[in-house]
């Protein structure tokens, strides 16, 4: 891990560093009711019928349940890497008082590098003022005062949008490095890395990143990356330029053979950025461009390094709110996007460049052309 500014990092225990939901599913399966962690699509088993959900929750209360936990592969190594880089690492675990002693001993035993004073037990993670919080519960992320609350991707939060995410320990390390090194790293110009290249446009909903992308692809130098999806195409074919439609089997095969930069599930359908789509654009001698969330941008940079630059599209909060309120989307969608707006605006610090969309569209385009170099 590259060493930069020292940060304070809080890590959740259950389902982030050590299995909890998986363990309950395994025990239930051993007792004759087969259930997989991949079936758990809502927190606290809320997608299951009441009898099964209550049975799984009861397993958590069994005296020996937490004694049987071990660390996920790679968890200890990630913690050691963060500590070796000089970061202050805190373990934040929500436990009832009667089980705090067990959990405290467990953490100190399995992670001996963590100071006892940095073991914090209790559910009030909304009081933890740290640089990073890594947690699998969306309610902890939305209420966190951390500068960078990061949702650790698990089956029960895959459909959540608008969050800074990490799908693996390696991805989280990359995020920490990006923030830690930010003051000392010179922004990359795409031309300095040589063509072909990729531009990831990042910003909140209604920041204008899609409009900027659509304007840029009028220039033959650029081509928009199609997303891979399992959802059906619209009857009028209006989304043919946005997506490449594949079957569930094809999508899963692409995951298995490592041909996706990143993938997620939303409303029961798979969405992904495929390496083939990007590299086909490069084969034409063009620059690939795509509006993405910060997770997608970090995933692209992890794969392609300096061949990829992330550009944050900055627009005033007032203009974004007004634009969202005028959109023809459900009130629930509007509420979610407004709730995550402040967090998404913080992602500017994770991007290589910022362009302003508070003036004319032409001005934003000129800024990006300078980044292309």
UniProtKB/TrEMBL annotation:
UniProt-listed SMART domains: GuKc
Reactions listed under catalytic activity: GMP + ATP = GDP + ADP
Keywords from the named record: Kinase, Transferase
Annotated Gene Ontology cellular component terms: cytosol
One GO term of the biological process aspect: deoxyribonucleotide catabolic process
Positions of the catalytic residues: 12 (nucleophile), 14 (proton donor)
Family matches, as InterPro entries: 5'(3')-deoxyribonucleotidase (IPR010708), GK/Ca_channel_bsu (IPR008145), Guanylate_kin-like_dom (IPR008144), HAD-like_sf (IPR036412), HAD_sf (IPR023214), P-loop_NTPase (IPR027417)
Residues of the Guanylate kinase-like domain: 196-373
GO molecular function annotations of the record: 5'-nucleotidase activity; GMP kinase activity
Pfam families linked to this entry: Guanylate_kin, NT5C
UniProt similarity note: Belongs to the 5'(3')-deoxyribonucleotidase family.
Task performed by this protein: Essential for recycling GMP and indirectly, cGMP.
Protein name, per record: Guanylate kinase-like domain-containing protein
Originating species: Flavonifractor plautii
């Amino acid at each position: 891990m590259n060493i930069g500014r020292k940060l304070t990092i809080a890590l959740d225990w259950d389902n982030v560093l050590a299995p909890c939901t998986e363990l309950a599913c395994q025990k239930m399966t051993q007792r004759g009711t087969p259930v997989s962690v991949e079936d758990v699509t809502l927190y606290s088993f809320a997608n299951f019928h009441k009898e099964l959900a209550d049975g799984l929750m009861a397993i958590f209360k069994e005296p020996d349940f937490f004694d049987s936990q071990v660390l996920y592969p790679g968890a200890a190594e990630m913690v050691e890497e963060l500590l070796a880089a000089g970061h202050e690492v805190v373990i934040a675990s929500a436990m009832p008082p009667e089980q705090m002693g067990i959990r405290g001993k467990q953490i100190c035993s399995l992670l001996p590098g963590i100071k006892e004073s940095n073991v914090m037990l209790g559910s009030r993670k909304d009081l933890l003022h740290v640089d990073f919080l890594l947690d699998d519960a969306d309610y902890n992320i939305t209420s966190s005062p951390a500068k960078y609350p990061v949702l650790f991707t698990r089956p029960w939060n895959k459909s959540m949008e608008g969050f800074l995410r990490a799908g693996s320990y390696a991805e989280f390390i990359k995020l920490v490095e990006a923030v830690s090194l930010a003051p000392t790293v010179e922004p990359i110009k795409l031309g300095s890395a040589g063509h072909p290249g990729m531009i990831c446009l990042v910003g909140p909903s209604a920041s204008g990143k899609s409009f900027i992308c659509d304007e840029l692809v009028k220039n033959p130098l650029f081509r928009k990356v199609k997303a891979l999806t399992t959802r059906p195409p619209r009857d009028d074919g209006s989304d043919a330029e946005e997506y490449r439609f594949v079957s569930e089997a094809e999508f899963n095969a692409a995951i298995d053979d490592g041909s996706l930069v990143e993938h997620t599930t939303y409303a029961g359908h798979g969405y992904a950025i495929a390496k083939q789509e990007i590299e086909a654009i490069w084969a034409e001698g063009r620059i690939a461009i795509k509006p993405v969330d910060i997770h997608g941008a970090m995933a692209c940079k992890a794969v392609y390094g300096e061949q990829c630059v992330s550009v944050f599209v900055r627009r005033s909060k007032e203009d974004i709110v007004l634009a969202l309120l005028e959109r023809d989307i459900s009130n629930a969608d509007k509420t979610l996007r407004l709730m995550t707006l402040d967090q998404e605006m913080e992602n500017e610090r994770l991007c290589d460049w910022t362009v302003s969309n508070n003036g004319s569209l032409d001005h934003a385009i000129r800024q990006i052309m300078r980044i292309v170099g």
